[in-house]
Amino acid sequence: MKLLLVGEYKNGNIDDSFYELVAFAQKVGGEAVAFFVAPSDIKPEFNGKVYVADVSKAKEYNPKVHRDLILKVAEKENPDYIVLSHSSYGWDLAPRIAFKWDAGQISEIVEVSDEGFIVPFCNAKLRRLLKPNTEKAVLTLQSGAFAPAKEGSAQIESVDVDVQDEGLEFEGFEIVEKGGVDLTKAEIIVSAGRGVGKKENIEIVEKLAKALGGELGASRPVVDAGWLPPERQVGTTGQTVAPKLYVACGISGAIQHLAGMKKSNFIVAINKDKDAPISEVADVFVVADLLEFVPVLTEKLSS
Amino acid sequence: MNVLVCVKQVPDMESKFTVSSDGLWYDQSDLTYKINEYDEYAVEEAVRLKEKLGDVAITVLSIGPDRVKEAIRKALALGADKGAHIKDDEAHLKDPYQIATIISNYAKDKNFDIIFTGMQSEDRGSAQVGALVAEMLDYNCVTTIVDFEYADGKVNVKRELEGGIKAKVKANLPVVLTCQLGLNTVRYPTLPNIMKAKRKELKEFDVSEFLNVEPKVITLKAFVPEKKKGGIVLEGAPDEIADKLIKILKEKAII
C-alpha cells in the first residue's frame, strides 16, 4: 500500500490539515509520500519524501497546473491512493485528478473500515460505506475526522513547474475585515442559526448572550441572509472557536459549523428537531422552539 | 450566449431519514422535495446574467424520476428558458462519475459557454460533479464561487476559502462554475411567471441515451450512525427546562 498525501500551504505556513492526512496514512498503513505547492524551504514534520513545486511559479490557485504536477509525482511513485483534505483546495482539485488518473473518488471520509470508507450522508444524519471500483482512488478527508499526527523530518525533492494553464488566472486574495469582534477570545458564545426565522428575532438570541455575558455568534445562513455581519460567523468559512460555553440556538449543525465549534468546553443546543446533527456534539440538548424557550431562559438568568 | 444550469432535486434536510429497503440509500417516500439549495443559486445567477446581457439562452437540466420535473418547472419559473429532463428512476444509485458523464454527453454538442451548478448536493455532498463535467468537456472550471461578473468574454469570480478568505480568479469561456451559499439572494417566482413556465419547452430524454460507463465507486451500504456523545436531553415546559439548564450550568461552574 502506498499513499500520496497532498498537503496545503496557506498564509505562509503548512496547514495543520496535512497532519490529519499523515494520521490517515498511519491508520491505513503502508508507505506515504507527500506533495506541496509551497516554497522549497518548508519543513513538514513527516517521515518520508516530500515533493515540492515552487508556489511562486505554480501559484496558490491554479488547479489544472496543480493537477498535472500531482499526476507527474503519481506517475513516478505509483501510489494506490492520492489523499487530500476535503477543503476548498481539496474538493476543487480531487475530481480533476481522479478523472485524469482514471480513478474513483471518495469524498469527505470520516472513518476507515475493513471493507471501505465511511462518509456522511444527508447532513450527517446518515452515513454511507463506499469502496472504489477502480484499482487506484482519490480520497478526501473530512476536516477534524483524524487527529493530527506529527512525525520526524522530511526529505525534500523539488518538482519542476513545467506546465501552464492559459484559461485561468489567479488574481490574489481578499480577506474579510474583522470589524472589532474577536469571537476566538470570547469565553461564552451564544449563536443564532436558521431557526431564528427572521432578522427581527436575532434580538431574542442577543439578549441571551448579554444575560450570559457572552458574545453573539451566527451560523452561515444567518450571515448569508444579512441578519448578522460576517465577523460573527462560526464555522470553517468563519471563525473557529473553543469557548467555555457555546449555546447554539436554532442551529441544525452542518459539518462546517460543527468543525468551527465542537472543541468548545461545554455545548448547549436549543433546537426543535431532536435528530439535528448538533445533538452529536451537545452536552445538553434542549428540545424546544427557541422563540418560546430563549426568552424564558434569559428572564431567569437576568433576575 | 448559451448557458446550462444543472439542478438536482433533494429532500428537505430537516426531514427524518431512514435507510431504504435495499440498504443503499435513504427511503425516498414521505419526503418533501425541493431544488438543491446550491443549485438554486446557480439558477438565479444565470437569470441575472440573462437580465444583464439580454441575449442569453438558459437550459436547465435535471436527472431523476418524474418528480424532478417539478424542480425544472421551478427553475423555468425563476427565468430559465427551457428544460431537459433526463429520466432515470435509479439516478440515486449512480456515482458522481456516471452523473457527470450523463451531463457531459448531453452538453458536448451544444456549445454551452457557461455551465452553472451547485458546489455540492445537500444529500450526497460529494462536491465532484461540477469539476468532473469540466474535465470531461475540457472546460475551465472554478468551484465554490460567492461572487460572479461577466465582462469582455471572461468571467471574474471570487471563490470562498476557509477562515473568511476569498480567492479572486479570472477565467476564459467556456467555463463550469460551481456555486456556494451566499452567491446571491434567490427571487421568489411570481404567479405570472409560474404560469408562463408551464408553457416553456421541457424535453424528456431517457438516461440510456447518455450513460455509457460503469461506476467508479460502489456503495456497500447506508446506515444510521451511532450517537457519539450521550448528552443530556431536556424536554418539557420551557419554565421547567430553563431551571434544569441553569442548575446544570451552575453545577459545572460555567455560570
Low-confidence segments of chain A: none
Tally of discrete structural domains of chain B: 1
Q: What distance lies between the first and last C-alpha atoms of chain A, to the nearest angstrom?
A: 63 Å
Q: What is the CATH homologous superfamily assignment of chain B?
A: HUPs
Model regions low in confidence, pLDDT < 50 over at least 5 residues of chain B: none
Helical coverage of chain A, percent range: 25-40%
The CATH topology of chain B comes to Rossmann fold
Widest β-sheet, arrangement of strands of chain B: 9-8-7-10-6-1-4-5-11
Number of extended strands of chain A? 18
Q: What's the CATH C level of chain B?
A: Alpha Beta
Q: Count of helical segments of chain B?
A: 6
CATH architecture of the largest domain in chain A: 3-Layer(aba) Sandwich
- Could you tell me which chain pair has the largest interface and how many residues each side has? A-B, 91 and 82 residues
How many helical stretches of chain A?
8
- H/E element order of chain B: EEEHEHEHEHEEEEHEEEH
Brief overview, please?
The complex is a heterodimer of chains A (303) and B (255). With 303 residues, chain A is of the alpha/beta class.
Question: How would you describe what is shown here?
Answer:
The complex is a heterodimer of chains A (303) and B (255). Chain A has 303 residues and is of the alpha/beta class. Chain A has two domains: 2-159, 3-Layer(aba) Sandwich (Rossmann fold); 183-302, 3-Layer(aba) Sandwich (Rossmann fold). In chain A, 27% of the residues lie in helices and 30% in strands. Chain A has eight helices and 18 strands. Chain A has helices at 17-28, 55-58, 63-77, 88-101, 202-212, 220-224, 255-261, 290-302; strands at residues 2-6, 9-10, 13-14, 31-38, 49-54, 81-85, 104-109, 111-112, 117-121, 126-132, 137-141, 155-159, 168-175, 188-192, 215-218, 245-249, 266-271, 284-287. In chain A, strands 7-11-6-1-4-5-12 form a seven-stranded parallel beta sheet, sandwiched between helices. Chain A has a five-stranded parallel beta sheet with strand order 15-14-16-17-18. In chain A, α7 links the parallel β16 and β17. In chain A, α3 (63-77) packs across α4 (88-101) and α5 (202-212) runs parallel beside α8. The radius of gyration of chain A is 22 Å and the shape is elongated. The model of chain A has no long low-confidence stretch (mean pLDDT 95). By secondary structure, chain B is an alpha/beta fold. Chain B has a single domain, classed as Rossmann fold, CATH 3.40.50.620. Helix content of chain B is 28%, strand content 30%. Chain B has helices at 37-53, 68-78, 96-107, 129-137, 191-199, 238-251, and strands spanning 2-6, 9-11, 33-35, 57-64, 82-87, 114-118, 140-151, 154-160, 165-172, 175-179, 202-206, 217-223, 232-234. In chain B, strands 9-8-7-10-6-1-4-5-11 form a nine-stranded mixed beta sheet, with helices on both faces. In chain B, strands 2-3 form a two-stranded antiparallel sheet. In chain B, β4 (57-64), α2 (68-78) and β5 form a beta-alpha-beta unit. The chains are: A alpha/beta (303), B alpha/beta (255). At the A-B interface, α4, β7, β9, β10 and β13 of A face α4, β7, β8, β9 and β12 of B. β18 (284-287) of chain A pairs parallel with β13 (232-234) of chain B.
